[in-house]
Amino acid sequence: MKRRYSLASLAVLLLVLGGQAVAGDGASAGRPESSALGTALGASRHVFILHSYNPEYIWTQNINQGILEALRDLDVVYDYFYMDAKRRPDKPSLEMAAKKALARIADFSPDVVLAVDDVAQEYVVAPSLKGKPSPQVIFCGLNAPPSLYGFPASNVSGVRERWHFREGFALLKRLLPNTRTVAFLTDASESSGYVIKDMEDDQAKGGPFALELKHVDSVGSFQEWQRRVIAYQSGVDAVAFGIYHSLRDERTGKVVTPEEAAAWMQSVNARPTLGFADYALSDVLCGVLEAGHEQGFLAANMARSALLTGDAAGGLPMRINERGVIMVNLRIAERLNVDIPYEIIEAAGEVVK
Predict the structure, then answer these.
(1) Residue 135 CA: distances (Å) to CA of 40, 113, 128, 310
(2) For 216-252, what is each residue's pLDDT tens digit?
(3) Which sign does the torsion angle of CA 298, 61, 26, 46 carry?
(4) Alpha-carbon Rg of the chain, whole angstroms?
(5) Within this chain, do residues 248 and 346 fall inside the same structural domain, yes or no?
(6) Exposure letters 6-23 (e unless 16+ CB within 10 A, then b)
(7) Crossing angle of helices 258-268/222-235, nearest 10°?
(8) Is 185 in contact with 217 (CB distance < 8 Å)?
(9) Deepest of 143, 281, 298, 301, by most Cβ within 10 A of its Cβ?
């Protein structure tokens, strides 16, 4: 069970984390404009939502919720396409998915395409939509530097994805002051490579984190992921998890579900755990989580501007997510015998019970 608190309560943690809490207020994400604007649009606008991943993925679902919330008062017709890159990451499958997506886009004739995560940019937007008079394209969930795809372009802008590494490590240090070292473990996906680069850049620019990064490991197989988790039990004080959605079983070659990977980890792990994205909500002790909802909400507000004005998306400044959702998991805390201070529970945006 989860208990939700107002995001305004995050301000309480400014004192708790000694000034290192997450920045961002309600205005930073933008707010839907009055419903009169939707009426002024007249005819329905077509918005195509192109996802890199599958519809069951909680990140995908949260992005959809953010999009729908931001555009709820406009007269919009939606179509969706899911490229399923987590479960079918091979190049032929992605090329086929891109071909099908482009056919759907041509048939739907959208005013705006909202393209989510890097796979959609690499296989659809950059090679086939960028630089065209229409449709306008707004990306979100982008891990790679936008310049890698030639963004911004005349008809393309959007929202970069930022993980709250520094704030997350500070939160875990606040919970467990004797914690000194941490390992960061993620899969070998392309997105993980960009995440690691962002973490290295954060440390280079901002100085040491609250915890010493003793290991930064990227692995391709589920068995190697298991071996690393077991090794960490005697090698570090805590474990931080990145992405665990493309781990392959060495025996079958099939992708292990994140639920299976997380369940195995919890069955053997005795170290405090930390996460950075909202899919980790039920899997780790704590974290300052990047929210898919915010990514979708920010991107949809940019799309809203293009829909209302008719201007090219390329004229909209690119954005980056600002808010972090502070999360504590009381169920895992009980299992690990960790006492979470009441003031942190009160300040958290997500409390898993």
Answers:
(1) 21, 7, 11, 11
(2) 999 999 999 999 999 999 999 999 999 999 999 999 9
(3) positive
(4) 20
(5) yes
(6) ebeebebbeebbeebbbe
(7) 30
(8) yes
(9) 298
